[in-house]
Amino acid sequence: MITKDRESNFELLRIFAMILIIIHHITVHVLYKQMQPGYLYGPGELFNNLAYYKKLTFVDFGFQVGKIGNALFLLLSGYFLCNKKEINISKTIKKLLSQVLFITLALVIFGLVLQFFIRDIPTLPTLQFYNDEWWFIGYYIIVIIASSIILKKYKLSKKQYETILFILLVLSSLHFIRMTKDLLSSNISICIIGVFYYLLGGYIKKYNPFKNISNTKLFISLLVIFGLSALSYRNFALANINASILNKTTTYYQKFITYNEYNITIIITAIIIFELFKRLKIKNNKIINNISKVTFMTYLIHDNTWSRTLMNKVNLIYYLHNNTLQFVIRCFALILSIFIASFILYKIYEFIINFTKKSQKI
Description:
The protein is mostly helical. It has one domain (8-361). Helices cover 73% and strands 0% of the residues. It contains 15 helices and no strands.
């Protein structure tokens, strides 16, 4: 997923996007899970009561940022690949799948060793992880293939490009059309918006459509979206509380808004962040580039059933409720440890690949 000699501002964006995705997974698979009935706390404990907590706005933010991270990765891919005359899809797929195989084997071995030290883990890695754990890989491949077919079949003018982007946006985001497609499969809308992001990345590279919008306006727009999102969550939370009071609910657990890549706030936020990073002037930086290389490995390491079980050993929901600083420190430590583990494993993977290539030449 990395191309040599790219400007380091884009590699920094890749790292930022992966951090957003990790925050999202910590939110969904750790924080939210720890809020569930009987997992750690029962009715009336911590956040499980009929009250609106401003702190939980950050949890709602965590539900959003993973979708923004996914969008940024697709925009990046489209930006660098869309306008190439030939895209070696098979080479990209081989590189992705070789890392998936390596991480699957590494997790199985590490899980076997770790169970001798931590015995109360209900989930352990298996070879089935290769096929069943990581949804984004197949999604990414489908998006690249579909986008490549569109670009190869049609020599798009600027007007045609804009028309296709508009059609993809409408097909993926309007409720009735989305509902009709989802009778066949709920994944169709996600695939369509994925192609939209990929093609939009290429469109931005080719035509630079936002060049006349100042950085100040982009920042203000971003702040307005965050502010409106916070108000939206407040309305959502209060509506759920009021409904529970009217229904005389005896137990109450916090609920959060479900976000998807086709939500308008996600689309606009991703475009603004992409544009702001695009404008950064960072020449080739080895540190940034080396960290950026491991982002796919970072995804594989942290987003699987076993890693989620390990992360749930940290009682994050308690710290969010009682000590915000400790909560932030523990989240930072989790993210940092994931990147360190990814970097070490990527170096081992890189050594194996280079050793294999040298052996074949002998």
